[in-house]
Specification:
about 30% strand, alpha+beta, 4 helices, four-stranded antiparallel β-sheet, two-stranded antiparallel sheet
């Protein structure tokens, strides 16, 4: 008698898991995929626009942040600008050899957002490099559910993307 009721209880628990938890896990995983794709597409659109125009404008930046935050996650967004410059190659005596070396100097979040706040635009030059890195700092619903069910927490961000490259045009 008790044995039958234990089997019925086990069957009921399995039924609940299959009817409610499995579809919920699938739904949360799909939502995470959609969130990742949305952030990746918006980041690629911003970096492509900046690389094609040679300038990051304040309204572009604010629109990007609004679109990314509309996903409901919290993100850490890092900007990177590698400015190209040339320095002469020196011989052992400190005299120029006639050759030139390409050197890149980095500007990061504070410099770029500071310039955006002051002038409303951040210009880049042809041949510079511009990158945007986005990583989520909050746990996604998918990570929370898996942590609850399996007892493991995701040590990596649910969303991580980096996009950018060489600036193709300068702003006149």
């Amino acid at each position: 008698m008790i044995e039958n009721s234990l089997w019925k209880l086990s069957a009921l628990l399995l039924l609940v898991a299959l009817l409610y938890v499995a579809p919920l896990a699938s739904l949360f995983e799909r939502q995470g995929d959609i969130t990742y794709e949305r952030v990746r597409v918006e980041t690629a659109a911003l970096t492509d626009r900046v690389r094609n125009l040679g300038v990051l404008e304040k309204d572009q930046w604010e629109a990007y942040l609004r679109k990314v935050s509309a996903t409901g996650e919290v993100y850490q967004v890092e900007l990177e600008h590698q400015k190209r410059s040339y320095t002469p190659v020196l011989d052992g005596a400190g005299e120029p050899t006639g050759d030139w070396r390409t050197v890149y100097a980095g500007s990061y979040d504070g410099d770029i957002t500071g310039e955006l706040a002051l002038s409303g635009r951040y210009p880049l030059a042809l041949g510079d490099f511009f990158y945007v890195t986005v990583r989520s700092t909050s746990r996604s619903k998918d990570q929370a559910l898996k942590s609850m069910l399996f007892g493991r927490s995701g040590a990596f961000p649910a969303v991580y993307t980096r996009n950018g490259g060489m600036v193709r045009h300068e702003d006149d």
